[in-house]
Design brief:
alpha+beta; two-stranded antiparallel sheet; 10 helices
Length: 377
């Protein structure tokens, strides 16, 4: 029987939906509301005191009446905040909200008039005759009630908007961090896959340089695992890893030709220690040169130029020769390294980078510029 009665009441109250959410009222909103009400009371008190034609007594009854009316005004403010708005407008029920505002404003206005009369009746034993002034008073108080609820709505919507902005920014930041982490994890297997192919080539020829290749790989993996987790590293640290990678690649060439065939030049007005860079940012450029370059080209198969003209600018150029591909052969799959690099540059250096690829007959060059003035040039 009890469950049946509860079901009937639940069915009757379906028009009153559940609140969309609960937004706590910040302490400064309480303080602001109290200051506004006190300011209005102060202005009203000042206008009565300075008006020589006023006959309204400023006694204890007047102060009690204003305190009660302020309490009802605050109740309207909080009712709109915690009750009406989240159950109507927050759920997309615009018409329901407008009807609720008018009904609530009218109800609170009548309550304020009745409460004002009750205060005078209790404290003075008289009932003010408001028959001639009822409608003007009702209209004025009704407008005040609507303004109170609209003020509550404005503050609530502003806070919800700011909270939504913070949430969106945090979600975007987390998304970027997740995407960057995924891109970085894609670099490591790509590098490892190419290096293992090189070591396999040395071991298949039973080369005495295979142990050195494994040692160089261990050094590179140590950098990938422990040092590349930071947001930025000194360029000198990135160059140390790059030199280790180049030494690993030189093991594929005859020892007498290795140094001259793979060249790295670093020059500029700023030492590499003074410039910070995202870790593993240069590796895809160099890997791409080894992947598509012709290591048999002489005197130089691959040339890497790194220039630091000032503390805010870095220019990296990787140049290599390529073997003319037979049109009958399928294109070599790949491109993951440069694709990831472009995406990382968009996320880490928005508006502060330029990646240029130049393809000439038999030659291939990639230039990366980082700096605040890149797009201005």
């Amino acid at each position: 029987m009890a469950s049946s009665t509860a079901s009937k009441w639940a069915a009757r109250l379906r028009w009153w939906p559940q609140a969309a959410d609960y937004t706590p009222i910040p302490w400064w909103v309480h303080l602001l509301l109290a200051l506004v009400l006190l300011a209005i009371d102060g202005l009203l008190y000042y206008s009565i005191r300075t008006n020589p034609k006023s006959t309204l007594p400023l006694d204890v009854v007047w102060f009690v009446r204003n305190a009660v009316l302020d309490a009802l005004t605050a109740a309207m403010f909080y009712w709109n905040w915690a009750g009406l708005f989240p159950r109507t407008l927050a759920l997309g029920r615009v018409q329901g909200y407008l009807a609720g505002v008018l009904a609530s404003a009218a109800g609170f206005t009548l309550l304020r008039l009745a409460t004002s009369n009750l205060v005078y009746h209790v404290m003075k034993g008289v009932d003010p005759d408001l028959r001639e002034l009822f409608w003007p008073l009702f209209a004025g108080l009704l407008l005040g009630s609507v303004a109170t609820m609209l003020a509550s709505l404005a503050v609530r919507i502003t806070l919800d908007y700011l909270r939504g902005q913070r949430t969106r920014h945090e979600l975007e930041r987390q998304h970027l961090l997740t995407e960057l982490a995924m891109l970085k994890t894609q670099i490591n297997p790509h590098f490892l896959f190419n290096t293992l192919n090189n070591i396999y080539s040395l071991t298949s020829r039973k080369s005495d340089r295979a142990p050195e290749a494994v040692l160089r790989l261990a050094e590179s993996m140590r950098y990938l695992l422990y040092d590349s987790s930071a947001d930025t590293v000194p360029l000198s640290q990135e160059l140390a890893h790059l030199r280790s990678f180049l030494d690993l690649q030189r093991l594929r060439l005859p020892e007498a030709e290795a140094e001259a065939a793979i060249v790295l030049h670093v020059h500029g007005a700023v030492p590499p220690e003074a410039f910070s860079i995202a870790p593993l940012l240069l590796l895809p450029l160099v890997e791409n040169a080894f992947k598509h370059g012709d290591l048999a080209a002489r005197p130089e198969a691959i040339r890497i130029e790194i220039e630091l003209p000032d503390a805010d600018t870095l220019q990296v150029t990787v140049h290599n020769y390529v073997v003319a591909r037979d049109a009958a052969l399928p294109a070599q799959p790949g491109g993951l390294g440069l694709h990831n690099l472009r995406r990382r540059l968009e996320l880490l250096y928005p508006g502060r980078h330029a990646l240029t690829v130049r393809t000439l007959p038999g030659e291939y060059a990639v230039t990366l510029e980082l700096g605040s003035e890149v797009n201005a040039r």
